[in-house]
Amino acid sequence: MTDDAELLSQYAQKGSDTAFAALVDRYLPLVYAAALRLVRGDEALAKDVAQTVFIDLARKARSLLGRELLAGWLYTSTRLAASKAVRGARRRQLREQIAVSMQERTTQPESPQDEGELKLVLDEAMSELGSDERNAVLIRFFQGKDLKDVGVALGISEDAARMRVTRALAKLQVLLKARGVTIPTVALGTALATEAVAAVPAGLAATISAAAVASAAAGGGITATLLEFMTKTKIQLGIISVIAVAVVAIPLAIQPQSRAKLREENQVLRQQVSQLAQAAAENERLSNLLAQAKSPASLSREQASELLKLRGEVGVLRRQNAELHAAQHVGKLEDQTAGADSPGSARFSLHLLADGPAEDAQQMTLSHTTRQGSTLEEVLYMQKTPLLDQTAIASACLVTNEQTGGPQIDITLAPQGASQLAKLTRENIDKRIAFFLNGQLCSSPVIRAEIASGKLQVIVPFPEEQAKQLVQRINEALIQ
Questions:
Q1: Which among 105, 260, 291, 305 has most CB atoms closer than 10 A?
Q2: Domain boundaries, the chain
Q3: Domain 312-479 part of CATH 3.30.1360.200
């Protein structure tokens, strides 16, 4: 068994990292030099190619057992890996470099001593030699061995090795000449010894050796050997067991959790779809009932008359209920309203509406009359403490609202009241306020912007004559 075969056997069967490192140290100069030529001098790419070759050697170590020489296999693997790397990088930096090299090859005169020409075609010509002849050239010139070592490596005598090397050089000379490089046999041997040698970067052997061994272990190339090695201690066996259990258990634990979560989300979505379907059915049922109630054809003449009568009575009751609430509220607000007016004065107050029931809020009902004459009621929650009262008023006048045609009271505030109004409207944008006149809730508009003019417009929900009396009483109270 040759030295190469022994080292390969130690690594493949016993997992000896030292043996593999020895192989890397022995053949890295050959592999790196060939890779450097094939990638046109790109050192970074040559390093990648060399690492790929030795990773491939580590992964295929078992299948290579029994091979006496690795030089030929490594050289062929280097050519294949470099060719693949060049194709992958062709669209990047190497495209221009290869284009320039090709242009120089066609425009410059051929020279037997042109090292660049020899670099371009040497490995292509080497690939056409027979395996025995290629191995002889690799060992003699690429590895720098003498003829005696060549014979030992090939298992032949020194004279037979000399004849094989001579025969290989002659064939190689013919192959190079066919590619445009003419060089004498003696000069070819010298050129091969020069071209085949390249300084290996420091630390590259150790890096490639570690990367190849780790990659082969991860890829399962020597899994059995690695496990056999790690089971030498109980602690390492425990570590492997824990890792194996974790690797298996974690996905098994995550998958049920994910499925349970998906089932819950699916159930919630189904419930929402069911609720939407029920709501749609109920909406359709109510729409049908409403359409039937509004349709004259669905009711007899007497029933329609009775329905209109009932609607009128409901409207009257709602207005009476609103007036009752307003009267009750006036009694509760009398001791909270600033100023001591005469018995005949008309009270005015402005309140901020709360979002909902609260301790400092009073529930009120505001009645709205639609264009069709029906009455709608809105429940409001008014803060008990007024923001403004009648003491802030400077004057009041009655006008007609342009939109409703009903009475409207325009109120001009005194300077202090105007300042208070500007502040409270500036601080309560998009909130609603309530106007009270003579103890009745008149309106509840939304504050859209700051009111700096000191003027208010209040639409009153009672007849014009009553509105005139209110304006008169407000102005008379201001004179007193």
A1: 105
A2: 3-230, 242-298, 312-479
A3: yes
Segment 93-125, tens digit of pLDDT:
655 665 555 555 444 434 334 445 666 678 888
Q: What is the pLDDT of residues 295-322, one digit of tens each?
A: 555 556 777 777 777 877 877 777 776 6
**Mapped to the 3 state alphabet, what secondary structure does the chain carry?**
CCHHHHHHHHHHHHCCHHHHHHHHHHHHHHHHHHHHHHCCCCHHHHHHHHHHHHHHHHHCCHHHCCCCCCHHHHHHHHHHHHHHHHHHHCCCHHHHHHHHHHHHHHHCCCCCCCHHHHHHHHHHHHCCCCHHHHHHHHHHHHCCCCHHHHHHHHCCCHHHHHHHHHHHHHHHHHHHHCCCCCCCHHHHHHHHHHHCCCCCCCCHHHHHHHHHHHHHHHHCCCHHHHHHHHCCCHHHHHHHHHHHHHHHHHHHHHHHHHHHHHHHHHHHHHHHHHHHHHHHHHHHHHHHHHHHHHCHHHCCHHHHHHHHHHHHHHHHHHHHHHHHHHHHHHHHHCCCCCCCCCCCCCCEEEEEECCCCCCCEEEEEEEEECCCCCEEEEEEEEECCCCEEHHHEEEEEEEECCCCCCEEEEEEECHHHHHHHHHHHHHCCCCEEEEEECCEEEECCECCCCCCCCEEEEECCCCHHHHHHHHHHHHHHHHC
